[in-house]
Amino acid sequence: LSTALAQVTSLKVTVLSTMVADYDYIGEWGFAAIIESDGNKILFDTGFRPNTVLENADSLNIDLSGIEHVFLSHNHMDHAGGLRQLRLKLMTKNKNAMKYVHVGKGIFADRFSNGENRNTFKKYRRELEEIGIEFIIHEKPKEIFPHIWTSGIVPRVHNEKNWSGYREMQINGETVEDNIPEDQSLAIITTKGLVLVSGCGHAGIVNTLEHVSNIDRKNSKVLAAIGGFHLFNKTNKDISWTAKHMRKHGISYFLGAHCTGIDAVYQIRKNNRMKRENCAVSAVGSYYELGKGMFPGLISN
Length: 301
Prior knowledge:
Elements: E1 11-17, E2 32-37, E3 40-44, H1 52-59, E4 69-71, H2 77-80, H3 83-90, E5 100-104, E6 112-113, E7 116-117, H4 120-123, H5 125-130, E8 134-138, E9 142-145, E10 148-150, E11 168-171, E12 174-177, E13 186-190, E14 193-198, H6 205-212, E15 222-228, H7 236-248, E16 253-257, H8 262-271, E17 279-281, E18 287-289, E19 293-295
Helix pairs in contact: 7-8
């Protein structure tokens, strides 16, 4: 990868779907965030229910109609469930709204549980393509917008096992556990370090950190990690190990949403001697802004 990459000078990541919400917004088991960087915008995941992201964006006075690129972290519908409605609603204002959808290789693979294909997103593929959506499949790290990179497929160096493990899939003729192989994250190269945005982190936050830190070898520090990291069911020992590796990467801001887990965020804050201002549970409307810091939301702790 390039060793002389340019860097963004302005960046804001705002959470539009997660569980914690006050009376102005809708909370759900899902994730979505809008990424605004040097004039470019991309929607990261689309929430679970059809209208959650639309309604929360409206409450936040955020106009989504100009966004043409969507990044899906993986196939689960708590991240992809809002895509169809977003496209149908916003294409009436902009024919290319939510049209280009970036996905990881393997997202359309069959997933079985009790003999039934559980990859709901695959079932919707034709329907989504019929309303004009174009899928862009990634396997390796690639620059989607200036200085905004997909991680591509993340190597599973450490056995973090950040998935539920109740589905199976066929790979090279073998039946194996579904470990969500297509899981991908975004890394934004800024003047102060990398900003990582994750949907569930099924590849493991440490595996992902190690992988994206190679995108810009001149500046491998990870300034901030935002989103879901699937730590809610981890042991204290696992979370302590995770926190240690986060320190190694120099993370100054951690905004844990969705499946990260409230207690896991608190443990990371304690283990890494952080404060609420830079390590907190994400709420709908919470955001991170380069150069200004993290704003967890009034009801988030």
